[in-house]
Amino acid sequence: MKNFQLIKLLGAFLLIGCLTQCTVIKEGEVGVKRKLGKYSDKPYDEGLKVFNPLTTRVVKVSTQTNNMEVKLAIPSK
Fold first, then answer.
1. pLDDT digits over 46-76, tens only?
2. Is residue 70 one of the residues assigned to a domain?
3. Domain for residue 41, yes or no?
4. Residue 30 confidence (pLDDT)
5. Cα dihedral value 34, 40, 44, 48, nearest 10
6. What's this model's pTM, rounded to 2 decimal places?
7. Domain region containing 51
8. 13-32: b or e for each residue (b if 16 or more CB lie within 10 Å)?
9. Rounded CA gap, 20 and 51, in Å?
10. How many domains would you assign to the chain?
11. Is position 39 within any domain?
12. Could you say which of 40, 44, 52, 60 is the most buried, measured as most Cβ atoms within 10 Å of its Cβ?
């Protein structure tokens, strides 16, 4: 009887583990939830986020500024 309860408990943990996934949004990033192809209006801040991996994906976007150096060949007088 105890083995059956242990197997049942392990099965429940396995099911919960398969239906949930975590992602970490680092400093300098923003996460946007995409559920069934539609993006959420609310962005996620830094930290640990839990979501359903079967229907949802969290897209991470960098918010840091990148400096770009541009060299132009402009004739001058």
1. 999 888 888 889 999 999 888 889 888 888 7
2. no
3. yes
4. 94
5. -40
6. 0.61
7. 21-63
8. eeeeeeeeeebebeeebebb
9. 6
10. 1
11. yes
12. 44
